[in-house]
Amino acid sequence: MSPIVFTTAHRPEQKVSLTHDSGVKSVFHLIYFNIMQFSKNHIIMAVLMPFSFFTQTKKEFSNYPKGLKINQIQVLGTHNSYAKPVDPKVLKMASDIFNQYKGSFLDKMPADEKAKFQEYHPNGMDFTEALNYNHPDFDEQLNAGLRNLEIDVYYDPTGNRFTKPASYELLKKQGITDLYPFSTDGMDQPGFKVLHIADIDFRTHYTTLKKALTALKTWSDAHPKHIPVYIQIEAKDMAIPIFPNSSQVLPFDSKAYEDLDQEILSILGRQKIITPDDVKGNYKSLNQAVLHQNWPTVNASLGKFIFVLLPGSAGMKSGESAYLEGHPQLEGRMMFLQSEPGKDYAAFLLYDNAIVRQNEIRKAVKEGYLVRSRSDIETYEAKVNNPARKEAAFRSGAQIISTDFFRPGNTYGTPYFVELPGGETARCNPINAPADCKVK
User: Fold this and answer.
1) pTM of structure
2) Cα–Cα distance measured from residue 412 to residue 379, given in angstroms and rounded to the nearest whole number
3) Which CATH number is 25's domain given?
4) Residue 195 contacts residue 215 (beta carbons within 8 Å)
5) pLDDT (tens digit per residue) in 233-284
6) Taking the alpha carbons of 317, 320, 326, 328 in that order, is the dihedral positive or negative?
7) Residue 270 domain-assigned?
8) How many CB atoms lie within 10 A of CB 228?
9) Which segments of the chain have a pLDDT < 70?
10) Which domain holds residue 250?
11) What is the total count of domains within the chain?
């Protein structure tokens, strides 16, 4: 089989052959973290799901102690919060290509990497079901009580980088034109674009970051007393050029991150953003401030947003150094960084598997860190109607719980969905809330 050429911002071009162990490993990292987040059921049910999109507006969190801090509550959110379903024709083309790479991927992994991989992907490698869900727009999610959203962004300083997805262009050349609608509004202009995977999973409620941020600000201005909303930003620097004339994805260097901060700041305004400087205060480091519980109170944070930067390259590279360049304590930055405990800039941690990392999450929360965990991973819990992971996530005290199923009516037809206990937009944290904050 001819090698496939794939690129990331860190490795401009690399040929991968199925017969080469490291090549299989690299391709499968790309596949698993990116491509195999689709499902046939997802596409079929996407047509039906809008009829079940009625969601009752949640009551805003209230009746909490005056001094309660934002690290002493727990909220619910989604990931890939902006995404629309992929066209089934694109799905089939991509799946046909990547199914050839299944092979003996796990068998070829070193034991330590295999253990880590299985922690983050504990339910197997089912290529057809990993993203079997469908999200509405931000307004509906926020009105439903979600207080955490994720936005994936691509750097496009000149514009027009993603206006003609390679998969659609290839299908059109084959005479196939009955494709899912794809808006290019604003994509010809310079600025960050919002999509999951260039050329493959590109349908989105918000084509540009400006549109996404404007939607957030408009909603926030209409609900000025909302508790702070966590926004996770993933800087996408991964290209998977399996189709002819695939998009050229740019790296996130220090200039790109400066532009990203400026775009967030220019649309929301400094007064609506809780920044690392706000938490660091007069402490020697951000981490020291976090360990001294120097987070703002909920009351002082009403109507605001907290941005967290997630690793790029599908988690294979952190990309943290570029964001820290010239800002080692995140001074002047608009976003916190995903980190490991103990680093000078550490404030936010990811422990997605609350069943495996229960003790680590509890310890981190008690120490003062913000933690995100997941109530369901790659839709498995919804498929089998298993509440164990969501119960573990809530029990752990992780401040942010991410789900793909925040309301009844999942695509599998099971009763599974996730609701924050207490029926409000937040609740007192079961691990570190003060005694006068009643946990519901």
Assistant:
1) 0.86
2) 9
3) 3.20.20.190
4) no
5) 999 998 889 999 999 999 999 999 999 999 999 999 999 999 999 999 999 9
6) negative
7) yes
8) 24
9) 1-56, 101-109, 113-133, 313-320
10) 20-428
11) 1
